[in-house]
Amino acid sequence: MKNFFKRTFKCIKHLFTEHPISMNESYFSHALWAVFYSVCLLYAGVACFVHAIFPFLFTRTASSIAEIIVDTTDDRGLL
Hints:
Shape: elongated
Order of helices and strands: HHH
Strand content: under 5%
Number of strands: 0
Oligomer: single chain
Helix content: over 70%
Number of domains: 1
Distance between the termini: 45 Å
């Protein structure tokens, strides 16, 4: 039974760390970047929605955020 839990824990750990390790990051570092991108994209989405109703607002916000995302992924060596 002990061996079962050990294998299960190893399998679960692998699920959570395989991708971050492939990006040369820790789990928490990868999670922080994911949260950063999520917040950026959420803000861009809200700005686009408002811009759709009021075209004079947020005229460059979404494209500026896209540039930030591309720049940070370039700096991290992801593109």
